[in-house]
Amino acid sequence: MIFFNLNIEATLQKLLLQEDTDGDKRITIEDKGPKAFEITSSKREPYMVKGTYHLSNLLQELVIAKNKGKTTAQIPLKGIEEPPVERVSRMVKDYFWSGLTRTMDEKGIQNLINDSKNETLISNKLRVYIPFNDKIAFKYYRNLETDFPIKAIKLPKKITPNFVKRINTKPGILSLKLKEDNGQINGIPFVVPGGRFNEMYGWDSYFQSIGLIIDGKIELAKAVAEHFQYEIEHYGKILNANRSYYLTRTQPPFYSSLICEVFEVCKDKNWLKSHLKTAIHEYETVWMVEGKRLIKNGLNRYLAEGIGFPPECEEGHFDAIIKPFADAVQISINTYLEKYQKGEIKNNQLDIYFLNDRSVRESGHDTSYRIDSNCADLNLVELNAFLYKYEIDFAKLIKDEFDDVFIINSKNYTSNYWLEKARNRKKKVNEYLWNENDGLFYDYNFTTNKQSKFVSATTFTPLWSKMATQKQAEEILKNALPLLLEKGGISGSTQESRGEISNERPARQWDYPNGWAPHQMLIWKGLLNYGFETETQELMYRWLYMITKNAVDYNGTIPEKYDVVQATHKVFAEYGNVGTDFEYITQEGFGWMNASYQYGLSLLTKNNIMHLNQLKKPEELFI
What we know:
By secondary structure, the protein is mainly α. Helix content is 46%, strand content 11%.
């Protein structure tokens, strides 16, 4: 193996001075340097590193060595010339997961204290809210108050929307599960999405776990389930994320899928039994309470039960909505919003608007023109597909692992019990959500008794849960794929459904032209469930090519989302694009994007991986 023994700081300074012409401490295709840099080492001939990709690899290798505390390092030539697919995958496995891993104990609390979202710290202290019944956690965080700027606060036994509204002016972090070994308390690790997100998010954690399992990090995936169980037991639901203002808000349900996939590796039946009981409890108490997230037609909706506007939004986010009401009574927007929050102004229109807005955020698709005005009135295709998967998973696990005997509180939940629920749901989905003429699944508005006709990537989700018939799957493939397939993969929606964009009607991040990792991963698995191997290979290749090419051109950037129409990480929509703000080298990528890369790579043919390393364009391979 060939190495170059280099002085790290001197080489870094010289490399950046020559090649980083825009001064962002990265080497990208937008820099105007000569794209050729000579490195020399004793006993070796000088070597010319050429091209953006190899130069940025050299920069990254130097920084990796520097981060290990070295002043000189043997930089391997194979690291500089590493094929791009191998490099992206290796960085995810060896560096990014570690960079995204957090704990909520003494070793990890500083990350949360330094979080950029903590503008409202009281006396410069981070509030840590602890469940009423978790005495160990409360005592632990009270003890940490001596050494850290935190304030331990015990939550009431019953958490109501009014209580959450009251503490929204005093937001903080919610405790997660701690473990006690021989009197020593430590945090159970969790993986965060990345960038500004330093808390554990609900559906992000499931998709990240797919990548963690592929990369052999089963204990981290198992820990996700431990935290999900803790949240259900103490907060009543799997939270949008473990921050206080999310106490009334859950996320798309993937708990049964997570425990199935973890159990497939760990084979711990006692662990499975414990989590299966909790998952059934979540299903019954979060999703199947009629009048809340279950409606009279037997299908489900999202219904975040908070009061007032979502406090996590940046200042001014709702100005356009508030302005007409404020103008009508001749006060400022801020004054109107303040009085509305205090209850001094009553406004039923705003109540309904914010109910829908919070429900959009509970759906994970925040935001999209598909659902942003009436989310709480919709039976969403994907939600009912996810819950069908719960019912099928419960049936299979109980039959295969517990001999069809699974007793909770004297009730035996047999496989037939769950299969009957799944059959009923499938029947209702076909009645309300399937459109025979269009050959697509649509969301259903149960207040107007009409399908929405908004074409979204979520039309594929019944294939992921195996709820669609073979004929329906073929129709979806024939009808949806031409509408949603773009240069870099599947778009969140069609341009036609999204409609025209203007200053008054800005772009939404979950709509055209943007593409998201969870959509791609669900669609790949769904298509494979029905035997569409050729089409899946193309979709995976398009997505992985886009990620690889952007990483090659932009110093290893792995962002939150992409514009799949232009196949670029340069996304112009609300909230920007997390994962693009770093210097020298990204330490994290972005959680579910990392997972989508590892998942797609695990399914891609060897021949397509070879083409991907050669950066062959999708249009050269697929007609």
